[in-house]
Amino acid sequence: MNHFSIFAHGDDFDVDAFLVRTKLKPDHVWRRGDQRRYACIESKHETSGVEFVLGDGWKVPLSDQEDIALAYLKEHREALRKLANFSGVETFILGLQYVCRLNSSILGFVVGPDSQLMWHALDAGVQPSYYVSFDRTDLDKEIEELHKKMEEWIERRLQHEAQQQE
After folding, report:
1. Is the distance from CB of 133 to CB of 97 less than 8 angstroms?
2. Where along the chain do its domains lie?
3. How far, rounded to the nearest angstrom, does the alpha carbon of residue 164 sit from its chain's CA centroid?
4. pLDDT in tens, 12-43
5. C-alpha torsion sign, points 47, 53, 58, 63
6. How far from each other are the two terminal CA atoms of the chain, in whole angstroms?
7. Distance between CA atoms of residues 158 and 143, nearest Å
8. Are 53 and 86 in contact (CB under 8 A)?
9. 15, 69, 71, 112: most buried by Cβ count inside 10 Å?
10. CA neighbours closer than 13 Å in the CB half-sphere of residue 22
11. Under 8 Å CB-to-CB from 158, ≥6 apart: which residues?
12. Which letter does DSSP use for residue 136 in this model?
């Protein structure tokens, strides 16, 4: 699921009232009780909200996402501030997506916005959140190679023990 977007929602957020008062053009609008777009089973929205997709978080590198988000926050500053303060908005998030390609050398990491992005996000009233997804493709290959080496080692060990017994 793509998480590179800005979204706002709330229990009492009247999206229709917001839409007639804003110049912002959301990519997705939902109302309480609507079926969720990404659900493969019946799953209804518990809140009403809007989403502004900024790009494909699976393809756009994190540093580029931050640059795009910063430009969007600057360009739409006043409209976003009005959204942050619109009646019923309880959650207002700038979602950035980091795809971490795992390998055996990764022990941990930390992700956070640079000071300029943080300043503009706070100014607009939006909370930056980093959604981390793990790409295990390389790790799976590494594990497979280690498994193969372990099997080879066991085979050599068994052959050695058999020779010792002869």
Report:
1. yes
2. 5-135, 138-166
3. 57
4. 999 999 999 999 999 999 898 778 887 778 88
5. negative
6. 60
7. 22
8. no
9. 69
10. 21
11. none
12. -
